[in-house]
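User: Non-homologous end joining protein Ku. Structure?
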Amino acid sequence: MRAIWKGAVSFGLVSIGVKLYSATEEKDIRFHQVHRDDGGRIRYKRTCSVCGEEVSYDDIAKGYDLGGGELVILTDADFADLPLTSSRAIDVLEFVPAEQVDPILYNKAYFLEPEGTATKPYVLLRDALADSERVAIVKVALRQREQLATLRVRDGVLLLNTMLWPDEVRTPDFGFLDEDLKVRPPELAMAASLIDSMAGEFQPDAFTDDYRAALQEVIDAKVEGREVVQPAEEEAAPAAAVDLMAALKASVERARVARGETPSGGAGEPTPISSARSAKRASKAQPAKTPTAKAAKTQGAKAEPAKKTPARKAPAQKAEPAKRTAEKKTTKAAAKKTAEKKTTRAPAKQAAEKKAAPRRSA
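Assistant: Predicted structure:
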């Protein structure tokens, strides 16, 4: 890195020599304007609109537009006489809690490196600033302009963040701010649930510039003379929802599925933000599929006997007891007749034996 400024941090009666480096850099892919036919660079000449002559940098001054075509011309001598007492110093004004500085005020960031023998006081200020959990409010003059800035510690180095002046921040003036819009508690609770379902720890490395990567791929393909591979199409953004509550519920469910959590109506514990309507539809749809699948496997010829069989068995079960009763009655009648025959035959047999007895004795 190359130092863009040299000066000193004025901390009470202590002066710490430092070098200033840009802490950030833009990664945008830059292009030159060229002639489409032959690739020649397009050059712009600094010409005067009055005389038409080309003007060198040494002859260029700054003009302030008063309106109506009138200008006030300022030269380098006019700027040199301005009271920039902190032109080569970073004056510490006060130390404040970091949360009291609105992030909208931050502009650009610069690293500070100790210069020469200023390493020990530099480290002293760094450690004291880190222990205090505060940031230093400072004034510094950069590029012929006095700026408000903060001084804090990042990765063991003092970091200077230039800031906008309060009057450089615009005040929002929109019509809806004057409207009396009421948000229902259920909608607010659902929005809070959506925020909770999408909560996480900020990891900057997890995010990438997809447009720049795709543009670099196009450039590399041009250089290598190969065909450009079209990137996958992104999912279209959903249309504006009419039912805010339904959109919130759908967003919560989508966020939970994306995080691998059990959706509402599943085997897990139901969530208070689940959609009862969706669960009801799922419960109705599931049984309807089961008989359809079975009916596809079962042929009509097999299904008909299954329905007729109970009708045939029913009368058979009723007729069987009657048949057994008839058989029992027939058996009893036959046994009765046999007993009567034996009773009739017994006296006749006894009489015949009595007659035969004297004959045997004679």
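Confidence is low (pLDDT under 50) at residues 266-323. The beta strands are 5-11, 14-22, 62-67, 70-74, 89-97, 106-114, 134-141, 146-154, 157-163.
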